[in-house]
Amino acid sequence: MRAVVMYGPGDVRVDQTERPTIAEPTDAVIRLAASCICGSDLWPYRGADDVDHQPMGHEYVGVVEEVGDDVAQVRVGDFVVGSFFSSDNTCAICRAGYQSHCVHRGPGAVPGAQAEYARIPHADGTLVATPGPPADDLVPSLLAASDVLGTGWFAAVAAEAGPGKTVAVVGDGAVGLLGVLAARQLGAERVIAMSRHADRQALARDFGATDVVEERGDAGVARIKQLTDGLGAHSTIEAVGTQESMMQAIRSTRPGGHVGYVGVSHDVVLPGRQLFYSGVHLHGGPAPVRRFLPDLIDRIWRRHIDPGKVFDLTLPLDEAAEGYRAMDERRAIKVLLTV
Ligand SMILES: [Zn+2]
Questions:
Q1: How many angstroms separate the CA atoms of 139 and 217, rounded?
Q2: pLDDT tens readout for residues 20-35
Q3: How far is the CA of 155 from the centre of ligand 1 (A)?
Q4: Of these four, 88, 182, 248, 284, which has the most CB atoms within 10 Å of its CB?
């Protein structure tokens, strides 16, 4: 089969590799219907994370081709959505809604989801089947549910976005933009998107942002305070993962408020004293997307939300290298790969 492999920073190729097979009785093998490139794939691409001949991709939708003997919930022929970690969905951590920390946690798609086929460990606890074969135009939204929507949703939940709340969103990548959508769906009264790019601002407004703040750093914090009677947001979504963005989020939140942080942390160091006096709640980490998948699939299926709009470039799998370049150069928000 064809699969995307990152040989090293900036070097993405499509290789012929072995098609995965059932390795454990709890596995399924799926044929990908679509895949995509994640903002987090840019960390190794830019040399910020080590990478050496790494099969890429962790967002996926597809059709079940084969299941192991112990798989009972998903069946051959089902159209399924999974996420970046596999989970048994039965342990105490999973039952509490934290499937991304499952005691049996592993990669969600092996060897990678930017490929024609992938093996899914713990298929029953990882995959959720759609009510039937989806219409073609629903596939991008279902694919978004696999990571960026599920992650943005968790960020909004962790930030306790809801009725009467003002939510600030730090980060205008796909996760931040879908955090805007999630906050509005959860009933937030006001959603302030922080972005300086016209195309991303437009999409943020389309997803329900009521305000846009272009300033960053001290000026960004001052602007959020100005929009919130000097208090700061009730809820802030952090969707970048840098020191600057994390502090932007904490400082933009009022005492007693909540920060939901989902940007993969890179060298973030929290200053204890500033944290102590901020009086904010911090919650985040890798999103337990599996918790939200049944609800998100239902909202997409009934066409109540259209998160697939974050894909502004579609390329065949064979042109994955161009997809990485486009995202790296911020020519594209998110790239869908047709398989
Ligand atoms: Zn578990």
A1: 37
A2: 999 999 999 999 999 9
A3: 21
A4: 182
What pLDDT shows up at residue 292?
Answer: 98
Q: Ligand 1 centre and the CA of 20: distance in Å?
A: 24
Do 119 and 157 belong together in one domain? no
d(CA 304, CA 173): 22
**Are residues 10 and 143 part of one domain?**
yes
pLDDT attached to residue 337: 97
Q: How far, in Å, from the CA of 98 to the mean position of ligand 1?
A: 8
pTM: 0.96
Could you tell me if 171 and 136 lie in one domain?
Answer: no
Co-location of 170 and 223 in the same domain: yes
Distance 245 CA to ligand 1 centre (A): 31
Smallest Cα–Cα separation from 127: which of 47, 61, 44?
A: 61
Q: Distance from the CA of 93 to the center of ligand 1, in angstroms?
A: 6
User: Can you read off the two tokens belonging to residue 71?
Assistant: 């798989």
Kindly report the CATH number assigned to the domain that includes residue 265.
Answer: 3.40.50.720
Ligand 1 center from residue 292 Cα (angstroms): 15
As a residue count, the chain comes to 339
**140 and 23, same domain (yes or no):** yes
Distance 95 CA to ligand 1 centre (A): 7
Q: Indicate if 109 and 171 belong to the same structural domain.
A: no
CA 161 / ligand 1 centre spacing (Å)? 26
As a whole number of angstroms, the distance between CA 316 and CA 215 comes to 37
* 98-143 pLDDT tens trace: 999 999 999 999 999 999 999 999 999 999 999 999 999 999 999 9
The rounded Å distance from CA 102 to ligand 1 centre is: 4
The per-residue pLDDT for range 43-74, each reduced to its tens digit, is 999 998 999 999 999 999 999 999 999 999 99
